[in-house]
Design a protein that fits this description.
alpha+beta, Rossmann fold, 2 domains, six-stranded mixed beta sheet, six-stranded antiparallel beta sheet, 8 helices, 35% strand, elongated, Sulph_transpt1
Length: 356
């Protein structure tokens, strides 16, 4: 099922939860809506589900405009963070609920409902839990029940609203990998809402990064990290040090951070440099403003170092023997610069960086 959203606007009073959002997803794609609280991702998901309606714009699912179609008529499966299971119903009854509440003319025979419930519980690998109640099973098992219930109506679009937030860290990793595997087996178009970037980057084919009611970049996880479209995306995704600087006559002034100035082909003016850990080399120094504060070995890839210089902590990689408290030199070798005029520039130090 394809999903096409065009210029969606949703206001709550004077505040715009969505401010001209457009999005297009392919059949069978797994997408994630990623952003901080208040960025509009849950509002967008609720509109796709039919639980809320836009003030402006179009929503097409499988080519059909559904902007004014209620949730029960969309054939969309939704899984919430709270699971929303009925405590007084068994696992099997919860899974069957969406089928049994259909209008009589669309409701399958009871034998068909029971057959489908058995198949779904086998699919999510919990057939032995059919007779138990939600309070008698674990959080990870409840998540599987919620998924089975969403799949019972045979949706072509599956919406996942922060579905792993209530799980502990170890279970969360296992369940999200299982969900991604289930998506691949079924081929259902899926949309995950999350504020957890690791979750989005691991599970999704493409990630829509949202900021203040807008999608600021929709791309593959790799492209988002390697070619962020805005300073917000660069700072929000992955691990990066943000250094404000001023460019004058082709020189970016970094001396206030205890770093060497760099040559850069940009106009004079204010800019921001983002450095990811693999773009920074930390070297021993006899005397320096920079001091090693934290050390994290990373096997043959070197040692992850957090060095303090002035009021800044800069993270980088070292291939030398360093101890906490040692003086060090911080040497950026590449980075992404966002100029105040809106241009973006990938900077690379000219001399080769030897790994040794």
């Amino acid at each position: 099922m394809t999903v096409d959203v065009e210029n969606l606007v949703r206001r709550f009073g004077a505040a715009a939860a969505l401010d001209g959002v457009s999005l297009s997803l392919r059949q069978g794609e797994f997408a994630a809506l990623l952003g901080p609280s208040g960025s509009g991702k849950t509002t967008l998901l609720r509109i796709l589900a039919g639980l809320d309606f836009p003030d402006q714009g179009r929503v097409r699912i499988a080519g059909v405009d559904v902007a004014s179609v209620p949730a029960r008529d969309r054939g969309v499966g939704v899984v919430f963070q709270s699971y929303a299971l009925f405590r007084h119903m068994s696992v099997a009854e919860n899974v069957a609920f969406g089928l049994r509440v259909r209008p009589r003319r669309y409701r399958p025979p009871e034998a068909e409902i029971q057959r489908r419930v058995r198949e779904l519980l086998e699919l999510v690998q919990i057939p032995e839990l059919a007779g138990r109640y939600p309070e008698q099973i674990s959080g990870g098992q409840r998540q599987r029940v919620a998924l089975a219930r969403a799949l019972a109506i045979e949706p072509q679009l599956l919406l996942l609203d922060e579905p792993f937030g209530a799980l502990d860290a170890l279970v969360r990793k296992d369940v999200r990998r299982w969900v991604r595997g289930l998506h691949e087996r079924l081929g259902i178009t899926s949309i995950l809402v999350t504020h957890d970037q690791e979750e989005a980057m691991e599970m999704a084919d493409r990630v829509a990064v949202m900021e203040r009611g807008r999608i600021v970049q929709l791309d593959t996880p790799q492209a988002l990290l390697e070619a962020p479209a805005t300073a917000f995306v660069a700072g929000f995704l992955g691990e990066a040090t943000r250094l404000p600087l001023y460019i004058e006559r082709g020189i970016a002034r970094l001396s206030e951070f205890g770093l060497d100035d760099i040559e850069i082909d940009l106009a004079d003016g204010e800019a921001v440099l983002f450095l990811r850990p693999h773009e920074v080399r930390i070297e021993p120094a006899q005397a320096s403003r920079a001091v090693v504060r934290f050390i994290r070995p990373e096997g043959t890839g070197g040692t992850r170092i957090l060095a303090e210089t002035g009021s800044r902590i800069i993270e980088g990689i070292s291939h030398a023997e360093l101890a906490r408290g040692d003086a060090c030199r911080i040497r950026p070798v590449s980075g992404t610069v966002f100029h105040g005029d809106g241009t973006t520039h990938r900077w690379q130090r000219q001399e080769a960086w030897a790994a040794g």
